[in-house]
Amino acid sequence: MREPYLLAAGLLTGLAIPASTLPHLSMILPSNSRFLWDLKQGSQPTVNEKVIPSVNLFSPELSNQALQSLEHVQPTVGEKITPSVDISSPEFSNQTEASLNPNFSAASSTFLSGSQLYYQRLAALKTGQIYKRADDNSLQSLWESAKNHQLTYEDWKRLLALEAKAIAQGQGANHLSILVGDSLSMWFPLEKLPTGKMWLNQGISGDTSSGILKRLGAFSATRPDVIYVMAGINDLRKGASDQVILRNYRRIIRILRQNHPKAQIIVQSILPTRLSTISNSRIRRINEQLVLVAKQQGANYLNIYGWFTDIEGNLRPELTTDGLHLSQEGYDVWRSVLQQIEFRLTQSEN
């Protein structure tokens, strides 16, 4: 049993671990997968004041076909689909007063609403790039021309599908990791993601495990090395049962394994909250079941719940903005986890 524990210790820290500390680590090997990472409370990384410099991630050129399809993005109002329009034209509508923040600056690197993030990413696609910050003029033009359109879930699904298409066409020999989830994944700052590879963010605010299950085909043409999945918090907010959440996870993993047989699928534990309406003890129970689901389905399980908890078992106050969503410090913690995993996966491939 000693060798698996040593492997776990190396994965977690990259340092030599005294044998006396090994019982504190937990290692489970899924039948069809290589690793399960269990990052316990007490192994939290130190979040210092130094910011890792951002780098230019790969920005694939969009093909003419992709650009043509982008010209016909159809904004929706509720379930009704409005006629297709050229998004570069003045007739293209944007968003309600509630979503448009008057303090928004096109040059700002901080997004104050989901709509700002959406239109920045859409403007980048219009230039034939993905995730590259659009210039002030093109972003402001798109922003101003869309004032009357309220973004919907379908809008986000189309945007993510277009980004996935761009990645699939431009990936080449580059390595790729994908974030799949809800707003926690969606708001992961690009500059905080581990460098040296491409990233595709497939997170949508408010999404549930049921919603994620239905949109996995959007990036089926990509060739990822790793797919990180985190879902469930919105299921709990909307009253879904534990059984529904776990059943959806099983289906998600099955589809991902079918679509991406060479990828490492990593199920990340549901994070704690500071909300009285969501029981952290229930989250812990679901996470315990997710360990079994991941093992049964041949996926990896990454337990980072303890990295985010305070002494009372709640989400650490400095790591959240509202008791649920993560602050910049919260994403620094998450980034530290991904850096370790990405480094170790890279080492295992060499």
Description:
The protein has 350 residues and is an alpha/beta fold. The protein has 11 helices and 8 strands. It has helices at 2-13, 64-70, 114-126, 136-144, 153-170, 183-186, 209-214, 233-237, 242-259, 280-297, 328-349, and strands at 37-38, 76-77, 80-81, 176-181, 198-203, 226-230, 264-268, 300-303. The strands form 2 sheets. Strands 1-8-7-6-4-5 form a 6-stranded parallel β-sheet. Strands 2-3 form a two-stranded antiparallel ribbon. Strand 2 and strand 3 (80-81) form a beta hairpin. Helix 9 packs parallel to helix 10. It is globular and about 50 Å long.
Briefly, what is this?
Helices cover 38% and strands 9% of the residues.
